[in-house]
Amino acid sequence: MASQRNLLAGLILMLVCFTANNSFSANLKLGIMNVQKIIVECDAGKAAKGRFDIKMKELQSTFKGEEEALKALQAEIKKKSSAWSEEKKGEKVRQFQKNGRELQAKTEDARLELKKLQDQELEPILKALEDIVNQYGKDNSYTAIMDGRNGVVYFDPSIDISDIIVKKLNGALAKK
Q: Which of 48, 63, 73, 122 stands 20 to 30 A from 40 (CA)?
């Protein structure tokens, strides 16, 4: 799927280049940026990652005790099941299964909570990034600015504007 998208983007770019007249192609100016790098390296991205990591560690520590209790119950069942009556053994197995399902549900809830937090943290950064890239493209007469990770198979590193965009994004987000 990704290779088809890359191929399609390359074909479209080639078509634009070949069909453009000489004066247009002489003025063609492309910029490549790495959105992932920009988000990871900008100040707001670093702060968001810090908040995300804190929340993830908090949730992991919450589940650690429950996971250990579940493992202890499983070990108890293995060790003592031969000495227990069928009724007691069945009761412990049902308790183990119930606790396992509850832990699984809590883990899924935590995963969804982390996804929501990630989306909340990234939304203002991505909005500001879009504005910065649009303005930078207009101010510097770019024909197109593309994400180097999505759709571009090869590019000369000299047209990578990621570091410039990180600086501009830091400046724009610092004002807010």
A: 63
Within 10 angstroms of residue 33's Cβ, the number of other Cβ atoms is 23
Burial 94-122 (b: 16+ CB within 10 A, else e): eeeeebeeeeeeeeeebeeeeeeebeebb
Domain positions in the chain are: 2-175
Per the CB < 8 A criterion, the answer to whether 153 and 146 are in contact is: no
List per-residue pLDDT tens for the chain, 176 residues long.
Answer: 555 555 445 546 554 555 544 444 557 888 889 999 999 999 999 999 999 999 999 999 988 989 999 999 899 888 888 888 889 888 989 999 999 999 999 999 999 999 999 999 999 999 999 899 989 988 998 888 888 877 665 667 788 888 999 999 999 888 87
Q: Which residue has the tokens 């991205």?
A: 45
DSSP secondary structure of 66-112: HHHHHHHHHHHHHHHTTTS-HHHHHHHHHHHHHHHHHHHHHHHHHHH
By the 8 A CB rule, do 7 and 121 touch? no
- Inter-residue long-range contacts of 68-76, CB under 8 Å, 24+ positions, other chains counted: 69/99, 70/96, 70/99, 70/100, 70/103, 73/99
pTM of the model: 0.66
Place of tokens 């192609």: 25
